[in-house]
Structures
1.
Amino acid sequence: MFAAFFNRATSPEERRIRAWCRKTLGVTPRNIPLYRQALRHRSALSEDRPDLEDNERLEFLGDAILDTIVGQFLYHHYPDKGEGFLTRMRSKLVSRHQLSILAKHVEIERVMELNIGRGQDTSVPGNAMEALFGALYLDKGFDRTKATVIKLITAHFDLKAVEQEDRDSKSRLLEWGQKQHRKVEFVLSEQHERGGRGRQFTAEVQVDGKTCGTGKGHSKKKAEQEAARDASRKLRLHMPDGGEANKGERTRRPGSRSRQRTSERRRGTGGQPGNRPRASKGRKDDQA
């Protein structure tokens, strides 16, 4: 009887969430308000509804649950791989980048409550996915949550492609700075959210003293990775599929054109399109 009370969707929004969960997650929610909270961004809160909670506590829980589930999955999926490879693969699969891709695939924004423009903060849908896993764990338990997460991973991710990706954008950006003799710095600031609901970090990437990228996250690491990815896109260090772009050609500083042509002649490319040097082989992931 108690379960039946929670299982009953009492509003159009809750009925919509219930239908979405059945179709997308393959589960029928018992505690509908819990899922609704998981899909409620803090921007949707209002002064006249102090009883409502945003999804950040559930996001914290979902983050921990996701780490455990993905870790177990990878341990059994790659029986011959070492700890280093498994750690990097887990970091990739639970990264904000991959969670945002997953959120887009399942169209989570269709059932979210938020008062910011769609796509304005690209981390919001990915954060909601973590909160949703937290709600699922509280409602259905670990085993059901594990089955759902693995189902989503295998349905929406190409693990072979993820293996080849290098999503440690901060390390790549710092390495690029050393090779190009550019000064790359990360500047962090911390903001406390209203009502003591937590804190958020903002990271800024400065290249030779000029801001080239920004990122936000509930940890310093997440904020720095987001900022590094933003800077990498603006500096054109990565192709859309995650590969490297034309290093040194599109990112050169004013006055460096002659030096670039000289280096091209030394390589024997003549600066012709299609004859650019290939990216280095032997990624660490493949050696683990």
Note: The beta strands are 184-192, 199-207, 210-217.
2.
Amino acid sequence: MISLLMVSKILSISFFFNSFSVLISWLSSFMMTTVAKCLQCAKIAVNMEVFLHFLGFAR
């Protein structure tokens, strides 16, 4: 009886940690893609600004 209780408790704890790690990995990958998109947008904006400055100086 006690051993069954211990096994169920260990299983529930391991399941909790498993789901927690999956959630953490999903969140980290989501954050990485978001950061990459933000960096890409920032790079495009900087390139556009440099291009506009170049056009202004060219005139």
Note: Residues 21 and 27 are 10 Å apart (CA to CA).
